[in-house]
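Collaborator request log, item 7. Partner lab (contact: R.S.) asked for a structural prediction of Phosphotransferase enzyme family protein to inform their binding assays.
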Amino acid sequence: MGWEALEQWGTDVRRVEPFTRGVANDVWSVRVDGRLAVGRLGSRSDDDLAWETELLVHLDRAGLSVPVPVPTMDGRLFVDGLVVMSYVEGRAPETTDDWRRVAEVLREVHRLTAEWPQRPGWRSSTDLLHAESGTKVDLREMPAEAVARCRAAWARLAGRATCVVHGDPNNVGNVLISGDRVTLIDWDEAHVDVPELDLVLPDNAAGLDEHAYDVACQASAAWEAAVCWDDDYSVKRLAEVRAI
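Returned to partner:
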């Protein structure tokens, strides 16, 4: 259906202008009943979008600042790959104190989602110690030596508790700060995994000790290498994963 689905949000609704951020989706500012919102159109399955929108509603009800799904006239949170969410204003984090606040919010996300089910079709980093693929990851596309290095990094996380991780919080475009509020946006990479993957922040703002920071950095670099394989960025991230 494409953007025609926007009519499900009412008669007074229109697209305004495209956002520059957003790779996997077509993202626009929209107006719904005169209010500014964000429309995101992609190819995610209904099960995937149900998982994401239910997560955002849960975090909002728990008091965290997130883009809240705006329901259609008949109460649906998405239609044919289209989600409309509340518009959030703010600036990117700039200082170590800003990033410490981001770490606090991430830890609250982790606490609130300790029993959350896995995103449909996804695998965690420790699942990939044995599985070969899951959503954006296909280890069969990587050289055997690269897979071995990634799995060695993830093996250091084995046995740890899991929760929802945002998946890309150290990207300044995914964090908005205003007043006393920190808002995490773009939950496209969110899934259930070990929380350490979210805590590799600038200046080690999460305050991990030396060993924990090394484990997290190696696992995070391995994850991003596997997810993005094989573009220039993934090759760069793989170079950060120690040989075995």
